[in-house]
Target: Xanthine dehydrogenase molybdenum-binding subunit
Amino acid sequence: MTRQDFRIVGQSVKRADVLEKVTGEGLYTGDYAPAGLLHGKIKRSEIAHARIVRIDASKALALPGVKAVLTHADVPRVLHYGSPHPRSASCTRDQYILDDKVRFWGEGVAAVAAISEEIADEALDLIEVEYEPLPAVCDIDAAQVPGAPLIHGVGPGGNLVIPPVHVERGNVEKGFAEADLILEGTFEGGRPVPTYMEPNVCIADWDGSNKLTFWTSTQSSFMVRGALAEVLGLPLNKVRVLVDHMGGGFGAKQDLFQHEFLCALLAKQTRRPVKMEFTRRETFVAGRSRHPFRLWLRQGFRKDGTLVARDMKLVFESGAYGSHSPGVTNVGTASATSLYACENVRLNGRAVYTNTPIAGAYRGYGVVQTYFAIDIQMDEAAERLGVDPAELKLKNAVRDGDIAPSGHPIIGDGLPACIREGITRFDWAAKRAQPREHPTNPAIRRGWGIGCEMHGSSAYPGIKEQGNATVKMNEDGSVTLLTGAAGLGTGAHTALAQIVAEELGVAFESVSVVHGDTDVVPWDIGAFASHTTYLVGSAAKMAAAKVRASVLRRGAERLQARVEDVDLVDGRVFLTANPEQGITVHEAMGPSRGIPAEHLIETASYMPTKSYSFAAHFVEVAVDTETGLVEVKHVLPVHDIGKVIHPIAAQGQIEGGIQQGIGHTLTEDYVIDRTNGRSLNAGLVDYKMPLSMDMPHIETVILEAAPDPGGPWGAKGVGEDPIIAIGPAIANAIHDAIGVRFHHYPITPEDVLKGLRAKEETTNAGL
Amino acid sequence: MTRQDFRIVGQSVKRADVLEKVTGEGLYTGDYAPAGLLHGKIKRSEIAHARIVRIDASKALALPGVKAVLTHADVPRVLHYGSPHPRSASCTRDQYILDDKVRFWGEGVAAVAAISEEIADEALDLIEVEYEPLPAVCDIDAAQVPGAPLIHGVGPGGNLVIPPVHVERGNVEKGFAEADLILEGTFEGGRPVPTYMEPNVCIADWDGSNKLTFWTSTQSSFMVRGALAEVLGLPLNKVRVLVDHMGGGFGAKQDLFQHEFLCALLAKQTRRPVKMEFTRRETFVAGRSRHPFRLWLRQGFRKDGTLVARDMKLVFESGAYGSHSPGVTNVGTASATSLYACENVRLNGRAVYTNTPIAGAYRGYGVVQTYFAIDIQMDEAAERLGVDPAELKLKNAVRDGDIAPSGHPIIGDGLPACIREGITRFDWAAKRAQPREHPTNPAIRRGWGIGCEMHGSSAYPGIKEQGNATVKMNEDGSVTLLTGAAGLGTGAHTALAQIVAEELGVAFESVSVVHGDTDVVPWDIGAFASHTTYLVGSAAKMAAAKVRASVLRRGAERLQARVEDVDLVDGRVFLTANPEQGITVHEAMGPSRGIPAEHLIETASYMPTKSYSFAAHFVEVAVDTETGLVEVKHVLPVHDIGKVIHPIAAQGQIEGGIQQGIGHTLTEDYVIDRTNGRSLNAGLVDYKMPLSMDMPHIETVILEAAPDPGGPWGAKGVGEDPIIAIGPAIANAIHDAIGVRFHHYPITPEDVLKGLRAKEETTNAGL
Model:
């Protein structure tokens, strides 16, 4: 009956939403179908860069069943924002709802609402568009040549999205002067897309009072509310955004696309509810990818392995609009100040527009690219210095007190702990001592690699984050938590309910979570940046603590005891010294006895500093030298995430991240034809994601090595971390297996065969 | 720009829900139809008192389309309560969900869920029930004779619902000894039913997590939540009650019938949503009526008109179950301590069970009956004393400092003010000086009467009321009010929004109201007892004031001024001395600038004393001496309701109350055959309500004579008052017209003709 030990936090309780999800009873946005529903569709351009000379919707409007058509002439000409923070540097504000110019192949040029999806599709074909083609710029080289066609013609100059980001610490020249070994290389990465299960979908419905109700699958309901209100000229109390279950988002759903505004406008014009649902193809064409990149990296090391200088130039390809390029560029550049500590750094990051689909936010925001390069080059350094790469990484790993990318000091030795634990648990030295040849199949070579990462459990440093939660206790001691944090499918609401139940001394089942209704939940910044458990969890704990204090105060009164002498467990207030003597919360708090509700409903706000989580991934690969196929056989991810709230959910995050990371490292790349900007594989037939059968044996290790005092009981984030370290770990393991270095992803079978051939030629040439 | 004057309070703003109601877009419970919906129906007994010997549902269950049948053997055997306060004295707890005994003709004995209403109805006929008849007790005389059959066999004895209520003040014998005139009479009233537009309806839906979502048309969502949770053995966080628009309730919908539990149980068994909707007939048979009553009253007066003694014995007919009989008996008895001040009172009230449909709460709770009797006898006293009845009532009317029925002192001279204002505005003396004969139609006689009333803007004194409200300001200064107060159709939410807008200095349209969702709104006692504006309005004002204080504090900081020196109007904080210098709430409060949500969301609780509203109704009637028809020609109701929030809504309440009051006074009576308990007119063909064409010219006068410091800006209730005074005013006017006293309602044409005949005989006999 004491609170010495955790009762709920740290337990893998049955997820609150598990039954409704497995039975199919849980509703997703697409499951809603208000009476009189119309279906909206978007006509998309089939040219990458052009001016619209003429657009004629008359034939579409004449089609029976078509209720409205919108072109650029029919919609407010406002630049909508793609971020909750228009004044912050995380997002640009450069896109119109519909424009008379087209900047990428697939951009929406008109929208239709009709009584069926089929009729809407048919109507799209009847809209006549006459384009005046403009020269298209389809890669970062073409975008950066002097005199390149300008895609926007505003901004800092050329096709730059924002002024270049420059970070400098120490004296890089001096550092390189002290170096015994200097490595230099160029790294590149493709265009992986977050292929969430649930394509983007929304429903707009206006009521008679000119209030818009808007169901949508978003990570940030308040961002959507704000953007819709602004574009539609409504006060915020006239826009209600509702989010129910979500089938993933992975960061991309913290953006605004075109369809939300078009859906709302079509509904307004027709006075009927309108649903817009992306096809899978549209999630590629009109969704958001990770930023393709090119990164030049030069690092200097002393003989003893100490890293003394780092010089980096990074270019992100933003695509036709800026979206999260400012944030990604800032985070991706600043992240190179850290991971492996280095006193002398000079970093330059930029993002450029091209006439290609839009890159945006995606799990591992900015740092997947940067740490892929840095970690591979560390591996090369170990090879050149003749030391074990795990030991070299351990030696240089950031430690307690080092300055993090955010400018805050790192708390604890999380990264060294992960590396050390992995070396032991993976039996790293013994594994690496084995022959690379497969025991039975001569075509197969085995290799072992390590990759490391760190990531902040909160957003871009320029944003003032604010976690909010309202806790409402019922008269029987059961509780409702109201939160704006979206549930992307990761079990975030379960973790929040655990935190509230723990703090209030009630059973997990006694806590219900109300979320995703902007009319009733407190303002929320959005579920991204690995921060829901850290940020909203802390706010939930604080709100619960306020209610707990009320209950204890009231219980103590009723027991004629001092507040310091009573405790609350399982809905019962009792004397700590004599647990038999107590009363239930119901007895203490029933409203018929006059306890004011104002003491049972508490909102708390939390404005955190920044915490960092860490991971080291240990990987075994098997490379088929005949086919070039790389098979990831075994992964041992070691994560420090502070206090673990729900072990199985955390493990699920890690396994999922590894699966996605294997994807972008080996197979996933959304390919754009660089001659004309056309999509070449916008769909899951041609875009190859790893399936469950492609998954390695994963042996997750979660440490509570460096709890952060800012998180609930020291908890930190885990959402993004697992996708970051797996990439360099695989690349390093491939090198370990076949002796070929790859500086790019995805590393395809073709690349492997080419690499083997080149190596053979070099070896032969050397003979 | 100053706050000297009201901007919104006191204005008849356009009701927030008016557009969705007139366009039909607003949803009522019956409009909801979740996928897979089943329809529930109840089989009702056709005998008033019996034991069920055998009940066989097998044939019903075999009917294709029938999904479940419940009889008393299938449901939890618990006494459910019909009140938010099981331990208070307002309601009994004497009814099972289904019992093996039947206590009135129409009681539910089984329930069916089927895929259509038609199949469910057909199934009802296939359920075989074998009864063992018991002697039925169908009126209060039969119920009170010694040795009467016992309907419940528990309680204080005989067929008493509760121990008799006894109130005594002063010395009644001494009072009568000082009286120059003593009057004695017996008064009776029928069984009017609150024929709300929207019959009782609910939908139950269980999700995979064993959580019940329950849409219902109720005045008290939290009462429904509590009762369902208790009966179903669920914690309160597992029951979500949702109330949308309502088509009236008039008090009756602050009760639980049988169908709510049966609906939830059928849905649980079938794992599908189930809707149960009363037919109009069921709203009579299984709904709630006003209590039929018999009241013996003896009062003594001095020659100068001073009331010196009152002795009263009151019997309410409860019907088969107690429902609100305890509360009605307490309120109805205690109310006789007041209205016309009297130092010496002895009051006895009781309620008795009979085998008839259940009487419950209905607008004017308890006092319609009591004040009907008292006010008519005052009129008789005036006649006997030879004084003007209005002057006699004015002389004896309760005044500031007199003790109210609740035990609190009356605040202000509200009743005298109403009487005085009415005497002037109605031109009372001049009207009464006219001949009673109609100028052109000799069959018609005209008469003028006055009736008075008072009523508390809060519930039964034993209940600790608590008004709660949460106010949530958005970052643009617009606001959401979260309240548990139901919107019966009277515009209560509009009044609450006005109060919040006034207090926060924003436009009325900037305030949205979220209501009727027990998961998100603060606990609410229910919308009854004329207390929503008074009780919840005060809480809303307090919550808004808390948010206002935050905004002013923040605004003052930003303006570098002291909080005392700034004001807030129309969403702008400015220097009181220099209104030009200011900033908008948006500028002061935007969350991206870091204002914590905890300061923008505030809950307030208000626990009031009791306030009283007052009214005097002045009436002109025309009595057709050939047909007995009474036509109410003109009503001038004068009401003191303190500060008026929304004049047109208050006027609407008054006009509606008068219409209902005319109904029960002249035409409405739900008749039960006293030989067998059968309903004789359960439907709107045979139960005659006044239509709009039957309405008199109404000239409403609203005074702000006696504001109550406990209400928002002094506002008091108006919901029940208008139905109370109209009855005695009409009876007194009929007497004024034809010289016949009626001591009962309804006063039918037959009664009038009988009365005229009896008077003629008496007159003739006297000749």
Notes: The two ends of chain A are 76 Å apart (CA to CA). Chain A has three domains: 18-26+466-606, 32-134+197-248+252-285, 293-399+413-460+610-766. Chain A has 19 helices and 30 strands.
